[in-house]
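Dear support,

Our group has been running a series of protein-ligand predictions, and this particular one with iron/sulfur cluster is the one our PI (initials K.S.) wants archived with full inputs and outputs. We had some confusion internally about which version of the output was final, so please treat the block below as the authoritative record. The input we submitted was:
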Amino acid sequence: MIAYDLPLWRPPSEGDNLIVQATLGCRYNACTFCSMYKSKRFQARLLDEVCAEIDRMAMLWPEARRVFLADGDAYCLDTDHLLALCGHLAARFPALQRISAYATPFDILAKGAGDIARLKAARLGLVYLGIESGWDDLLHRIAKGSAAQMEAALTLARASGLKVSATVILGLAGQRDWQAHIDATAELINRAPPVYLSTLQLGLEASVADRFRDRIGPGFVWQDDAAILAEQRRLIEHLAPPAPVIFRSNHASNALALAGTLPRDRDRLLGELDSALAGGRGLRPRWLRGM
Ligand code: SF4
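Confirmed final output from the archive:
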């Protein structure tokens, strides 16, 4: 048995893959809406300790092909540390195809093209990046850097062959500012498209709700499901990326699951949204949703 340090989070698409906890917590841990790692103090786990755990995992599941490095932003680890982990994984799992991790824009920019290429050659070729919004004002209010940093990280990743799976949070700007949030987000993605794009719906744990409200400003009012679908619709309508973007809204927080490739499937996705907005397609019940 592998005893993970809980809570353990991973992207929906990594649900069937091997998870190796290379770090505990999130080094950044400052985003105002995020409660994922508030109970953990960030630490890089000792390489020998993680390698010994990988050895035990290899005995239990030797045919594993995909590995996700947890916790929060394991891509922040020193490049040589990551390369040693990748090398050990490749030695223990003969069928290994892909290694992935969460990353912040700061991690990607700090690595630079050379280290990104070295890691990609070692099979760490996919990162999950929460861009949340392309609107500078909102990014500042949620303590998530700037749109320029997001764009620079996305551009560097694409130029270096690192696949990015990016997430955007619907409802993040509330009723008053939703159009500015969505329009700037579409513009960012059109300038610097990730390979994969997903949307989530805002949900706040009680432990972070006060800080979120303090930073977001006094005028914040939650969006209801119809307004969230209108945000989704406007985002898809405005997306015209110069390279194909594989789009999903399959996260458990979403009222409506959508899947397609943009811009090719834009009209079909808009049709599905219009059907849902007109009541012709059921939404996921609230009790089945979660962040
Ligand atoms: S959203 Fe990501 S980067 Fe921000 S605090 Fe949470 S885990 Fe860390």
